[in-house]
Amino acid sequence: QVQLVESGGGLVQPGGSLRLSCAASGSLFSINAMRWHRQVPGKQRELVASIISGGSIYYADSVKGRFTISGDNAKNTLYLQMNSLKPEDTAVYYCNIVIRHNNYWGQGTQVTVSS
């Protein structure tokens, strides 16, 4: 059983920064990928950033240069550093870990970018 708990969301002004955290627990062996997604009501969930086993990192074009995905193995925690936030970044952000090709999801954390 794998559990993911996100934190760090909130209200921030345009141009501001937030760091999302995703604390993982359980059987974390053989991780295939670690990802952050986001979803706006009425729209499909969007892949924002991912780290694939082997170290390859992907960013959606909309966040490239502003967001950074990273992980702390000692703390079993995945992070998403978000800088230069824009109103269009407003969404519920979800972390997702793929272990032996099984997907595990956190509960989501709301990020609102507004003045």
Descriptive account of the structure:
By secondary structure, the protein is mainly beta. Helices cover 0% and strands 58% of the residues. It is built from no helices and eleven strands. A hairpin with a 4-residue loop joins β5 and β6 (57-59). It is globular and about 40 Å long. The model has no long low-confidence stretch (mean pLDDT 95).
Low-confidence runs of at least 5 consecutive residues: none
Distance between the termini: 40 Å
User: What helical percentage do the residues reach?
Assistant: under 10%
Helix run count: 0
Return the string of H and E elements: EEEEEEEEEEE
Q: Based on CA inertia axes, which overall geometry fits? A: globular
Oligomer: single chain
Mean pLDDT over the full residue set: 95
Secondary structural class: mainly beta
Topology:
Elements: E1 2-7, E2 10-12, E3 18-26, E4 31-39, E5 46-52, E6 57-59, E7 67-72, E8 77-82, E9 91-99, E10 102-105, E11 109-113
Parallel strand pairs: 2-11
Antiparallel strand pairs: 1-3, 3-8, 4-5, 4-9, 5-6, 7-8, 9-10, 9-11
